[in-house]
Amino acid sequence: VLLFIRKAPPSTDYVLAPTTRLIRKRREELDIHKAMEALQEVIHAHTLTSDPLPAPPVSIPSCLFQENKLKNGRVLKIAVKERELARQKAANLLILKQELKALTKERVKIAALVEKHEIYSRFLDKVVKASKQFQEAWQVMSRVDTLVQTREELLTSIKQNQECCETSRTQLTQYLEQNEDRLLHYNNRLAKLHRILDRVRSETMLWESRWAHIQNTATMKTMLLGTIKMATVNLYQTTS
């Protein structure tokens, strides 16, 4: 029977507190220890069941030759099956030994990591003793995990807000560029209208001057006409 070791999911230790990683490593070490014990039991069982094949009989009486011939055929088939079974068991035993070797290396590796992170466990115990807020180490770890999760959420929110600000900044830049084009267009149009207004004002002043001259001329002619009329009346009255 082959024993398949389930691989652990991708590591997320970079976002966990050191104490949390220590506890996880301890659990992994315990799981590997159990798997190694199970492998050793399987290897031991294979070793016990790998009995040597029975030796063939030394001689066969001639009177039982035909019967023994049939029996030898069955024995041969059984021997072949047993040899195949033994070969499979040997192959399985080799695989199990390789798995046991790999598990042993993994256990040593995890034990080293546990020993490396043991300092965090001791530090955590000191924190619990000195703290009035926490009574157990798991409370501190739970608090740290909550803070780490909150930090991740805040970083995600900040990233989203930065992306939103960048989008708004891009839109504002585009809007300003479009408005600058419109403003330039309106400024050109306004300058053109100012030129037209200046020309109209110049023409207006010219026509006002002409109109004043016409009015003065008309007034002088009206006065002259009045004088002529008075003189004509006086002359008529004198001649009469």
UniProtKB/TrEMBL annotation:
Record's keyword terms, sorted: Coiled coil
Record's Gene Ontology CC terms? cytoskeleton
Protein name per the record: Coiled-coil domain-containing protein 42-like
Q: Where would I find the DUF4200 domain in this sequence?
A: 65-129
Organism name? Salmo trutta
